[in-house]
Amino acid sequence: MKPIIAPSILSANFANLAKDIEMVNRSEAEWIHIDIMDGVFVPNISFGFPVLKYVAELTNKPLDVHLMIVQPEKFIPEVKALGAHTMNVHFEACTHLHRVIQQIREAGMQPAVTINPATPVSLLADIIKDVYMVLIMSVNPGFGGQKFIEHSITKVQQLRKLIEETGSKALIEVDGGVNLETGARLVAAGADVLVAGSAVFANENPEQMIHNLRTS
Which residue segment(s) compose the domain that 100 sits in? Predict the structure, then answer.
C-alpha cells in the first residue's frame, strides 16, 4: 500500500508561497503538513493563524496541522476554523492528553499525538485506541533539514506492534529527515504517512519527488 505524502510547508519558499502550494495541489500529495511553533515548546517560531488562513484558502488538500506549542488545547477553535482535517498535539505538551484528544474530536477534527525522539512508544499504550494518528518525530522538533535519527525505524516497528496488539486503527506518521532512502525504510517498518519538507521543496522537480516518495 502506498504511503500518504504530506509535504511540510515549513520548507516552502515564503516569498512565493502561493506557487509552492499550487505545486502541491497539482501533485500526488494527499495532505499538506503545517508546523506551528511558539518559540517556547521548541526553540523556533514558524507562523501564525493569519498566514495559515491564506494557506487554507489556496489549497484543496486536507490540512495536517502539527502544533509544537505549549497548551495546544487553547487553539482548538482556531485550528478548526482553518478547516483542518487533523490536529496533532505533542504528548510532552499535554498534561491532560486524553481530555485534549476528546476536545479535538468533539470539534470535528481527527485527533493525533506526536512523540519526540526521546519519548518511548510504550507511553502511548493508554491513548493509542483513542487517536486517529501518531506522529513519530525522527528529528528533534523545531528546525527543518536535520539529519534522520536512525532509532526512528525501531520506534515505527514498536508502534506498529502496539497498534496491532491493542486493535487500534491509528495511522503512523513520521516527520524529519524523510527522503527516498529513509522513506522506503520507514514504510517497510510500518509507516503510513510521510512528512517531507526539504526533500520536496529543495528538489528541482518537487512533483516528481512526491511521486517517487509514494512509489519507492
Answer: 4-215
Average per-residue pLDDT in the chain? Answer: 94
189 has pLDDT over 80: yes
Query: Cα 74–76–192 angle (5° rounding)?
Result: 125
Catalytic residue among 35, 38, 64, 192: 35
Q: Residue 18 has which C-alpha cell? A: 502561493
Please name the amino acid found at residue 56.
A
Contact 149, 138 (CB under 8 A): yes
pLDDT in tens, 57-87: 999 999 999 999 999 999 999 999 999 999 9
Active site residue 126: no
Give the domain CATH number at 141: 3.20.20.70
Domain tally, the chain: 1
Q: Annotated catalytic residue: which of 20, 64, 175, 192? A: 175
Q: Is 35 a catalytic residue?
A: yes
